[in-house]
Amino acid sequence: MSNYSLERKRVYVAGDRGMVGSALVRRLAREGCDIATAPRALDLRDQAATNAWFEAQRPDAVFLAAARVGGILANSERPGEFLYDNLMIAANVIEAARRSAVGKLMFLGSSCIYPKFAPQPIAEDALLTGPLEETNEAYAIAKIAGVKLVDAYRAQYGCDFVSVMPTNLYGPGDTYDAAASHVIPALILKLHAARQAGAEQVTLWGTGTPLREFLHVDDLADACVFVMQHHSAAGPLNIGSGEEISIAALAQTIADVVGYEGDIAFDPAKPDGTPRKLMDSRQLQAMGWNARIPLTAGLRDAYAAFLRSRG
Ligand code: GFB
């Protein structure tokens, strides 16, 4: 295992206002590093502005957690934005990091880079072995391009850049939007509203049968710091919890957390997405990292943060 210390380093967290970036900033507070965050006005899709910011700040290390993200509907309705924004962010930040001689960079991707029907659990070598899930192909192509940029820069320029692929994430700082967000914040929002309204039934999307693996964002941030310190190799590295659940069972768990006692129905006219997406995280476990936050405890934490954010 490689050894890279973050202590006294200047560390840029790209995407610090997002759920993942803000969790990284919280976690990095324990590492004795100097955390650089960019002003809101910096648009990472703008190459000249990104280069200028790196030149001025000269970070030693970079966590690339900036991205255009969203749930299944946002991904399928806005593929242009998901492809363009994520390609530009990855290309600009990775190139700016090379130009300004960043010592270590971590690119964060997503489990949706793997083929729709990859053997489960999905190992890293499943990449580019089959067609992608259609609902998030644009996002996945951009994230695959990021992984390949990292590998190309390792090979051609000797940059110590790495890629990690988190499974489906949730936690404090998530985006709550009934139409555009991921399933956990969408269900917290919908089931909380149903409880408040005294509704007898709530209709959720798809069939309820897809299986998903979820990881609390504080576990992800901890894994990222660990991987930054101990991993240096080409190719994606999976970060999962190993905890898999059907969407129907997830909905019931969230109903229990928010105290909703009505019926839960499903609308099969809405997309299911990929049937199953369980990561094989054995490489990371063999390095010595395991998730710690169980799903139900993590959901309680996410719901508490949701209630706090609404005052
Ligand atoms: O989290 P989610 O939007 O994304 O949806 P994916 C997961 C599952 O939850 C799907 C179902 O089967 C949805 O049909 N679902 C049920 C709902 N009710 C709802 C609801 O109200 N809102 C939402 N959003 N889902 C995303 C990708 O795929 O995963 C991204 O689109 C990214 O690119 C992300 O990779 C991690 O897990 O299907």
Summarize the structure in words.
By secondary structure, the chain is of the alpha/beta class. Helix content is 42%, strand content 16%. It is built from 10 helices and 12 strands. The chain has helices at 19-28, 47-57, 72-77, 79-99, 137-157, 183-197, 217-230, 247-258, 282-287, 295-309, and strands spanning 10-14, 34-36, 61-64, 104-108, 161-166, 168-170, 201-205, 211-216, 236-239, 244-246, 263-267, 276-277. Helix 1 links the parallel strand 1 (10-14) and strand 2. It is globular, with a radius of gyration of 19 Å. The mean pLDDT is 97. The site of guanosine-5'-diphosphate-beta-L-fucopyranose has 24 residues, from helix 3, helix 6 and strand 7. Guanosine-5'-diphosphate-beta-L-fucopyranose binds next to helix 3, helix 6 and strand 7.
